[in-house]
Design brief:
Blueprint: E1 3-9, H1 19-34, E2 40-45, E3 48-53, H2 60-67, E4 73-82, H3 86-103, E5 106-113, H4 122-136, E6 141-142, E7 149-155, E8 160-163, E9 167-168, E10 180-184, H5 190-200, E11 204-211, H6 218-235, E12 238-244, H7 246-255, H8 261-279, E13 284-286, H9 299-306, E14 313-314, H10 322-331, H11 335-338, H12 360-368, H13 373-385, E15 388-390
Parallel strand pairs: 5-6, 5-7, 10-11, 10-13, 11-12, 13-14
Antiparallel strand pairs: 1-3, 1-4, 2-3, 4-8, 4-9, 7-8, 12-15
The site of adenosine-5'-triphosphate has 20 residues, from helix 5 and strand 11.
Length: 392
C-alpha cells in the first residue's frame, strides 16, 4: 500500500510573514536527511508538510525514524494513500488499520474534509466507515470519548489519507534559521545535550574538541567523533575542529598557580574557539556547564571564564540537574557513549584544590604573567588545517 509521511508544523506555523522561509528551511533539512533512502517529493498545506515517496522500495520505517528527528515539527504520522471514494477508503482502512483494530476493544472514526467537493461531509464519512469497520471487526464497540484506536480519514485535494494518529516529533525550529554557533564538545554527558538543545532552537552547530596527547588517547578522540555522529540526525552536518592542546596545558602547569589551572585552561579554550569562530562566520559559543556541578562550574568560575569571551556564550543546561540532563542524553542516545571511561584534557593536571571563588583580577594577572600568544596562534593554525565534516 502506498504510504506518505505527514509532519505537523510547530512554531513554524506561528511565524507570520516569515513562515515560508522557515518551512523552506525545514523541507531542505528533511530532504537532506531522507535523500539517501530514495526519492521524495514535498508539499505543504495547512501547516502540514507531506513527504511523498516517489520510489517503490523506500524503507519507510527508516524514513519516519529520520524525519522525526528533524527540528520543526511537533507531530508526525505515516498514512495510507487511497483514491477519493468510499470503497477505496474502506478497503484501505481495513487493510492499514486492521492489525490495531484486531487487538482493540473500542474505536472511533474521525474524518476531515478539506476537499468540499467530496460527496459526503465529515459526519457522514464517520457514520459510513464506522459502520463498515464495526461489521468487519464485530468485537469492537464505538467509543467517541476515549477510544483505543482512532481511524483518521483526511480527504484532501489529490487523495485521501488514512492513519491512526500522530506521535510527537522533534519540536523546535529548523536548524539553520538561527545563525551559527560553536559547541565545545567534550566526551562527557552534558555538552552533547547542550548542542542538541541549541540545534533545537535552529542554530547551525560546529563542534570543537581539545586533545592533549599523549595524556589523552586516540580512543578518547574517537569517542567524541562518535558523539558528534550521534547528534547529527538532529543537528545536521557538523564541522568538527580538533585542537592540539598539550603544549598549552604543559605551559599552564609549568607557569601558573596550580589552583587556577582549570580556569585559565578554560579561558584559553574559549579564546581558541573564538578565533576559529571569527574566521568562519560563527557568532556564539555553546558549553555544557551546569551551575555548581563541579569546581570549575561555580558562579565565580563561570564569571571568570565568560569574561574571556567577546561573543555570547550559551549554556543551555545551566539550570538543569544531572538527572534531567541524563534523561535527554538517553533520549538522543549519547549517554552510553558518554559514560565510556576515556580521559578528557580537562582531567589532565587537574589541581588538588581548585579555587572555587577566584577573583577575575587574580585570574587575569596569572594569565598575563606568561606569554601564551605564540602557543594559542600555533594551536589555532594547526586546528584549521584539518577540519572534518561529521554526520549528515
Ligand atoms: P561534559 O559532561 O560536557 O564533559 P562536564 O560536566 O564534564 O561536562 P567540564 O569538564 O567542567 O564539565 O567541562 C565543562 C564544559 O567545557 C563542557 O560541557 C564542554 O562544553 C567544555 N569542555 C570540557 N572539556 C572539553 C574538551 N576536551 N573539548 C571541548 N570542550 C570541552
Ligand atoms: Mg567533561
Amino acid at each position: 500500500m502506498k504510504e506518505i509521511i505527514l509532519l505537523k508544523e510547530g512554531e513554524i506555523a506561528l511565524k507570520g510573514l516569515n513562515k515560508r522561509q522557515f518551512e523552506e528551511a525545514f523541507i531542505k533539512n528533511l530532504r537532506h536527511r531522507l535523500k539517501p533512502l530514495g526519492k521524495f517529493e514535498y508539499t505543504r498545506a495547512q501547516s502540514l508538510i507531506y513527504c511523498i515517496p516517489r520510489d517503490d522500495d523506500i524503507d519507510m520505517d527508516e524514513a519516519v525514524s529520520r524525519a522525526e528527528k528533524v527540528f520543526g515539527a511537533v507531530a508526525i504520522c505515516r498514512a495510507a494513500v487511497t483514491e477519493k471514494n468510499m470503497d477505496s477508503i474502506s478497503a484501505a482502512a481495513i487493510e492499514y488499520c486492521g492489525e490495531e483494530l484486531e487487538y482493540a476493544r473500542t474505536f472511533k472514526v474521525c474524518a476531515k474534509r478539506s476537499d468540499k467537493g467530496f460527496p459526503l461531509n465529515s459526519p457522514q464519512i464517520c457514520m459510513e466507515l464506522g459502520g463498515i469497520l464495526s461489521e468487519k471487526f464485530p468485537h469492537l464497540t464505538v467509543d467517541v470519548k476515549n477510544p483505543q484506536v482512532t481511524v483518521n480519514v483526511e480527504i484532501r485535494d489529490t487523495a485521501a489519507y488514512i492513519h491512526t494518529g500522530n506521535r510527537p516529533a522533534a519540536g523546535g525550529i529548523p536548524v539553520g534559521t538561527s545563525g551559527k554557533a560553536m559547541l565545545l564538545l567534550s566526551g562527557g554527558i552534558d555538552s552533547p545535550v547542550a548542542g542538541y538543545m541549541m540545534a533545537k532552537r535552529g542554530i547551525d552547530i560546529s563542534a570543537i574538541h581539545y586533545v592533549s596527547p599523549p595524556y589523552t588517547s586516540e580512543r578518547a578522540l574517537m569517542k567524541v567523533e562518535q558523539l558528534c555522529e550521534k547528534i547529527s540526525p538532529y543537528c545536521g552536518d557538523t564541522a568538527f575542529y580538533c585542537v592540539p592542546f598539550t603544549e598549552i596545558q604543559e605551559a599552564l602547569r609549568d607557569n601558573c598557580p596550580e589552583e587556577l589551572f582549570t580556569i585559565l585552561m578554560r579561558r584559553i579554550m574559549m579564546e581558541i574557539a573564538q578565533r576559529i569562530c571569527e574566521a568562519n562566520g560563527i557568532s556564539a559559543l555553546i558549553t555544557g556547564e551546569s551551575v555548581g556541578q563541579v569546581a570549575s562550574q561555580t558562579m565565580g568560575a563561570i564569571v571568570c571564564t565568560d569574561a574571556a569571551c567577546r561573543m555570547p556564550v550559551f549554556h543551555p543546561v545551566i539550570g538543569m540537574d544531572k538527572t534531567e540532563i541524563v534523561e535527554i542524553a538517553r533520549k538522543i542516545d549519547t549517554f552510553d557513549i558518554s559514560i565510556q571511561p576515556y580521559e578528557d584534557c580537562c582531567t589532565v593536571f587537574t589541581p588538588k584544590h581548585p579555587k572555587t571563588k577566584p577573583s577575575l583580577a587574580e585570574v587575569e594577572a596569572a594569565q598575563n604573567s606568561f606569554d601564551f600568544e605564540p602557543l594559542i596562534s600555533k594551536a589555532v593554525e594547526e586546528t584549521v588545517k584539518k577540519v572534518i565534516k561529521v554526520g549528515g
